Amino acid sequence: MALVAGFSNAAINRLHHTWEGINSSLKHKLTTMRATLAPNNNSAQYRKTLHFIRTAKIPFLGVHLTDLTFIDDGNSDNLKEYPDYVNLEKLRKTYKVIVDIIKCQEIAYTDLKYNQEIMNILTSYIDPLDEEEDYELSLKLEPRGSTADEIK
């Protein structure tokens, strides 16, 4: 999700000439990721993909936490007809969401290899820019109305 959000940032998304230089296979992967993580129909594509993946996976907890919030807020703890009885349907729905998250932990990441270059990138200090600074840098890289030849 963080990758999709980062690439969807206005400062990144507006770099049309830069995007033209990106490998079409990578652009296709990003398009697929965007479609998978789209919030349409209660994140239906994400849920479908998560269900069918048979390898190690990291769930997007935002979807599952939203489910738990709606289950908790939208269902009473006790039955309306029998206030002394626990609402087992609410517990069943909560259990199902938690099981879906736990299932993501069933398969370990056994084929990952240590990569020093990636570790250096991940552990180096990067001073984050705010949105305004992002956009200013984007305009420096590709000024409005510029052609592909002008930015090379």
Automatic annotation (TrEMBL):
One of its GO terms (cellular component) is plasma membrane. It comes from the Eukaryota. The keyword Transmembrane helix does not apply. GO terms for biological process: Ras protein signal transduction. Residues 1-144 form the Ras-GEF domain. Pfam families: RasGEF. InterPro entries: Ras-like_GEF, Ras_GEF_dom_sf, RASGEF_cat_dom, RASGEF_cat_dom_sf. The keyword Transport does not apply. PROSITE patterns: RASGEF_CAT. GO terms for molecular function: guanyl-nucleotide exchange factor activity. Keywords: Guanine-nucleotide releasing factor. This is Ras-GEF domain-containing protein. It comes from Sphaeroforma arctica JP610.
